[in-house]
Design a protein that fits this description.
By secondary structure, the chain is mainly beta. It is 10% helix and 29% strand. The structure holds calcium ion (CA) (3 copies). The site of one calcium ion has 7 residues, from loops.
């Protein structure tokens, strides 16, 4: 990974802070202790500041990594060895229940101080899960990239996953599939893919893992919490290693933003050491990229060299295509092709001409989902696989607005025809066609050439003269020369980089002394550090006739540009009374440009906006301006704000409580996210509720009339159906709403007593029907063809020879149907007064009495002796039995106090907990607690203030 050149340049991570979000780190290790940074550390599991791991055998990997790191100071296989002067902290968070709130606390720890967060966890790597961060973690990501590192953005280095042995796809993991995370895969020392590698199009680059054969095998058996990826010796190291390399780049250039870092990794990673593995393609800007390794092995030498010369990329534009509602059926055995012509928001503020990330948001239903392969081809001809087949994914059938991410189009143009392909490529049998409901493309990138390097003498090449000039990327796919293997030979790295035809070309020679950086952060020249105007020594100084904007020191000529110093503010070299719009006065009184996202502001960065620029929307709870509302928010068009969806909604529309998808497998029903489906509906395999057949009250499935569980008043359950009249020889049990079969020979009955008998039968003294012929014989005999024959020994009376022809039993046996048994079988109970085994209610598989079930039929939930299709409010289902929710929850998904899904009236839901009121730092809305502005400790709600106490001009509900 070419570390020596970076170290030779003197970069060791000094001044850069890295935090490892895992199960803790060994803070007192002799070699780690001197770099240990308590401000980059906390213990969420232990609720204290010391992230020292528990020494109980299960939580070794943080410790082990720290140990291995420390063992070799220059160990090139561990991140801290890589950046051996970086400050290192750790967050202990995986050694306990990991939920949204825990994740958000870790991701949001001290973002002003921590530069790089390293994480290697996410949804279960079982090859069938599709899940991502919850609302709080999502917000922590957005806040991190927009406001962390004083607005330059936190760097989240993320492992692409370890589910290779379950053929998992990292694009089904919403953490690594996020644009905010720098996703890192791993390779063996020999340059091959390790057995646990997951392939996907969101992986950016690769580092070596220190995996050794034999070692790898043992870890497959480690049993861990479902939220965790299986423990592995490489899991931590390879992301920590990438984090370490990022730390070197940040030391080389502390102004790098989170997007700059991704650019640098794309541009400097090397495919060559990993080309023994198949699957490399050359994209439209002639870079090799792979689903296994992204853009290749990270190269620390090249990264710091490029970082030194790097100029912050222009602001991110986000262009959303239309949402194409297809509603096309996906037939087994076919390949479906869909096309979309996009203009990349040309001519608007959102225009994207140079791509970074591309998301393809898809809603579809197909069973089994794991059979599908989804591919997307760009206008420049690059095909990226958004989803590989996952043979184990046979439990679910849907993707709901899932934003598949590809980084393979980086640098390409967005405009043109995109081609989406859905292939039923797996081996599983498919019973019925699926449906592609809709898809949408979201382009992230810039409208101007993003790559502008500083020339060696320190001046910058002229940035973006005109958006129409200097289009550096080829606009058409052309036959291209192969990328040579020594292209990234680091000895001559930069020369090659410059000379490489047409790729990320930077050009121009006009040097502008006052270059403002593209995010609006003014780069001041050395002469204008304060409010003093440059003095021209030849000019005569005077105190008379000076412009009114000059202060008492006077001037050296007429007009506001000739002041010695300014009375109020200064813009460029002119004194002004107030700074113009789209600027603010810095501490020296000099007007500086606002961030591009701000129309008016109090500082240079994105979170200092007072009002947003045209084409921008304000994310109200984070108080930042963005081009588009992020996931989990909806846009209020009237006041151009992004309002968070209600807790539990993954996405919503028009209102916080009008959910269009749900978090963490809650059920979507009538645009609400519920813990269980209401009566008259049942849970489908894609986590929504569908109505029962009209005659059922509750049901286990829909569509046809034979999946009823219980019936409305006036109907009776009979073999899965709800009927108005029970069939012949059945008793309509009004109390229990079911039809009960009469005893043998009965025409009509009343529970267990015959009221009338069939022809040729008559009621005997015990209220049972016996054959007319029976009184020709003794009680324990039956009549057959003119002869009296003995009953089976278990019967007291009978109408045939076998044990299944009893009409009554010899004491102490009891009658179950037509058989005498010592004890009632499963599904029957013995009534206390009658010597009969009576059938349980149709919903029970075991019972003590008609109304006291102890075990339910499959798919039903046992609640206080009743078998229901769903647990009552206040209960959740634990393996078929309803258990009580924590006392503060109205409904819940588990027993914990933070597993509430809804709250009692008047209570507030926050991070899964119901509280009588919103905690400090939040304020109350009808949709739950919302976070106060980051500068407030507490806030009243409707009126919100920015950092300087200025009242903001927007309305909240
Ligand atoms: Ca602790
Ligand atoms: Ca995974
Ligand atoms: Ca990512």
């Amino acid at each position: 990974m070419n570390l020596v050149p970076a170290w030779k340049k003197g970069y060791t991570g000094k001044g850069v802070v890295v935090s490892i979000l895992d199960d803790g780190i060994q803070t007192n290790h002799p070699d780690l202790a001197q770099n240990y940074d308590p401000q980059a550390s906390t213990d969420i599991n232990g609720n204290d500041d010391d992230p020292m791991p528990q020494d109980n055998g299960d939580n070794k990997h943080g410790t082990r990594c720290a140990g291995e790191v420390a063992a070799v100071a220059y160990n090139q296989f561990c991140g801290i060895g890589v950046a051996y002067n970086a400050s290192i902290g750790g967050v202990r968070m995986l050694d306990g229940v990991v939920n949204d709130a825990v994740e958000a606390r870790a991701l949001g720890l001290n973002p002003e101080h921590i530069d790089v967060y390293s994480a290697s966890w996410g949804p279960e790597d079982d090859g069938k899960t599709v899940d991502g961060p919850g609302p709080l973690a999502r917000r922590a990501f957005i806040y991190g990239v927009t406001s962390g590192r004083k607005g330059k953005g936190s760097i989240f280095v993320w492992a692409s996953g370890n589910g290779g042995r379950h053929t998992d796809s990292c694009n089904c993991d919403g953490y690594t599939n996020s644009i905010f995370t720098l996703s890192i895969s791993s390779a063996t020392q020999g340059g091959y893919k390790p057995w646990y590698l997951e392939e996907c199009s969101s992986t950016l680059a690769t580092t070596y893992s220190s995996g050794t054969p034999g070692h790898d095998k043992s870890v497959a058996t480690v049993d861990m919490d479902a939220r965790l990826r299986p423990d592995h010796i490489c899991t931590v190291e390879h992301t920590v290693l990438a984090a370490g390399i990022c730390a070197l780049a940040l030391e080389a250039n502390p102004t790098l933003t989170w997007r700059d870092m991704q650019y640098l990794v794309v541009l400097t990673s090397r495919p060559q050491p990993l080309e023994k593995e198949s699957g490399w393609v050359v994209n439209g800007v002639r870079r090799k990229v792979s689903h296994k390794f992204g853009y290749g092995l990270m190269d620390a030498g090249a990264l710091v060299t490029l970082a030194e010369k790097w100029t912050t990329v222009p602001p991110q534009h986000i262009c959303k295509s239309q949402e194409l509602i297809e509603d096309k059926s996906i037939n087994p055995g076919t390949t479906l092709d869909f096309y979309m012509d996009v203009d990349a928001c040309g001519g608007t503020l959102n225009e994207v001409r140079f791509l970074e990330h591309v998301q393809c948001k898809i809603s579809l239903r197909f069973f089994p989902r794991g059979n599908l392969r989804i591919q997307l081809t760009s206008p420049m001809g690059t095909t990226s696989t958004l989803l590989f087949e996952r043979p184990r994914d046979v439990v679910s059938s849907n993707f709901d607005d899932w934003p598949f991410l590809s980084v393979h189009y980086w640098g390409e143009k967005a405009e043109g025809r995109w081609h989406l392909q859905i292939v039923n490529a797996g081996n599983r049998h498919v019973n019925q066609p699926g449906i592609l409901k809709k898809w949408q493309l979201i382009f992230y990138g810039t409208s101007v050439n993003p790559v502008r390097l500083r020339t060696p003498n320190g001046a910058r090449s002229t940035p973006w003269k005109s958006p129409l000039n200097n289009i550096a990327f080829p606009t058409q796919p052309q036959p291209l020369p192969q990328v040579s293997n020594n292209f990234f030979d680091t000895s001559d790295y930069f020369k090659n980089f410059q000379n490489f035809p047409n790729v990320y070309e930077f050009s121009g020679s006009d040097q502008d002394p006052i270059v403002s950086s593209l995010d609006g952060k003014k780069v001041r020249d050395n002469n204008s550090q304060n409010n003093q105007v440059d003095l021209d020594l030849d000019d005569e100084q005077s105190r008379d006739g000076c412009d009114e904007q000059c202060d008492e020191q006077g001037c050296f000529g007429r007009g506001p540009a000739k002041c010695i110093a300014c009375k109020n503010k200064r813009m460029d070299k002119t004194c002004v009374s107030v700074c113009p719009p789209r600027s603010y006065a810095d501490s020296q009184g000099v007007c500086q440009a606002c961030h591009e996202a701000c129309e008016t502001c109090t500082g240079p960065d994105q979170r200092s906006c007072l009002t947003c620029s045209p084409g921008h929307v304000r994310v109200i709870d984070l108080d930042i301006c963005l081009q588009q509302c992020p996931e989990g928010y909806y846009e209020s068009y009237a006041d151009k704000t992004c309002i968070p969806c209600q807790p539990n909604c993954a996405s919503c529309q028009d209102r916080p409580d009008y959910c269009t998808s749900c978090d963490h497998h809650l059920l979507l029903y009538q645009n609400k996210c519920l813990a269980s489906c209401p009566q008259n509906s049942y849970e489908t395999d894609d986590y929504s509720c569908a109505p029962c057949y009209e005659t059922c009250l509750t049901c286990t499935g829909g569509g046809n009339s034979s999946q009823c569980v219980s019936c409305p008043v006036g109907r009776f359950w009979h073999e899965g159906r709800c009927v108005r009249d029970c069939p012949a020889h059945h008793f309509a049990d009004r109390r229990h709403g079911e039809c009960v079969e009469c005893p043998p020979g009965c025409g009509e009955c009343n529970r267990t007593t015959c009221l009338s008998c069939l022809d040729d039968w008559k009621v005997n003294s015990k209220g049972r029907c016996v054959a007319e012929t029976s009184d020709k014989c003794d009680v324990d005999q039956y009549y057959d063809s003119g002869l009296c024959k003995p009953c089976h020994s278990t019967c007291d009376s009978c109408d045939g020879p076998t044990e299944k022809a009893c009409l009554s039993c010899a004491s102490p046996l009891i009658l179950q149907g037509t058989k005498c048994v010592g004890k009632c079988d499963k599904g029957y109970y013995s009534g206390r007064e009658s010597q009969l085994c009576e059938p349980c209610l149709h919903t029970c598989s075991r019972c003590l009495s008609k109304t006291n079930c102890t075990e339910c039929r499959t798919g039903l939930q046992l609640q206080s002796g009743e078998c229901l299709s769903a647990c009552a409010n206040g209960y959740y289902s634990d393996k078929g039995a309803c258990q009580r929710c924590y006392m503060s929850c109205r409904t819940c998904s588990g027993p914990g106090r933070d597993q509430c899904v809804s709250c009692p009236t008047g209570w507030q839901l926050l991070a899964g907990e119901c509280r009588p009121d919103c905690p400090e730092g939040y304020y109350k809305t009808v949709y739950g607690c919302q976070r106060c502005h980051y500068s407030c400790k507490n806030c009243p709600g409707k009126i919100r203030y920015n950092a300087r106490g200025v009242r903001l001009k927007y309305r909240y509900f």
